[in-house]
Amino acid sequence: MMELTVISPLNNSLSLSHPQRRRLTAASCAGSSSLSEVRVCTNRTCRKQGSFQTLEALSGLAPPGVAVNACGCLGRCGSGPNLALLPEGVIVSHCGTAARAARIFCDADKDVLRNLEALALRKRAESELERGNFSDAEVLLTQAIAMSPSGGIHVMYKDRSVARLGMSNYSGALEDAKEASTLAPQYTEAYLCQGDALMAMEQFDEAEKSYSTSSQIDPSIRRSRSFKDRVERLQQKLAAADIS
């Protein structure tokens, strides 16, 4: 069982009894509105105990609205990988497997299994996307979405949007990208996918709005090569449309 402790304002740790652990576990499920962020220690000791793998698993399992970020030492070296659940200030120790990571967001065994199976399908689909096997990726992502996982489903819709765009199913790609943004309104990738689908549909003004929304949510993406390439292609299309 994972050990949970509460961080005091002075960064001292107070051990919790078993009943307290159960209450905190339930409060930290995906259905709770209180959990807003999970921080994963990636300092040296936790890193050796697999915290980067835990960080990757949590990022794939997190429901919309729950941020997953790396952080420095949480003061429980030797008990890692260690996580901090915010804003409650709860530390979870010994979270070194995907199954334990899944229990941060759900408690029932059947829910943990469903989320892990859906995540595995998504990872397979992403490998197919990298190979350009868009139809295979779409099948896998459709299976993952049908499992109704409690976390990561907005990423699955985004990935399926990419697959459908690659298959020239532009309306399907746009529909999935919009669903991803509905599930996670601050998810920049969803708006980029909307823009890509709208570009393919030659709805350039609407594509510009989608790209603009993504950069407003996260201004740092304006420096990325992929975003600059999108803007350049869009400007070329708009210029050509003006000439014609």
UniProtKB/TrEMBL annotation:
**What keywords are annotated for this sequence in UniProt?**
TPR repeat
Instruction: Return the TPR repeat spans.
Output: 188-221
Q: Which SMART domains match?
A: TPR
Q: What is this protein called?
A: DnaJ homolog subfamily C member 7
Q: What is the lineage of its organism?
A: Eukaryota, Viridiplantae, Streptophyta, Embryophyta, Tracheophyta
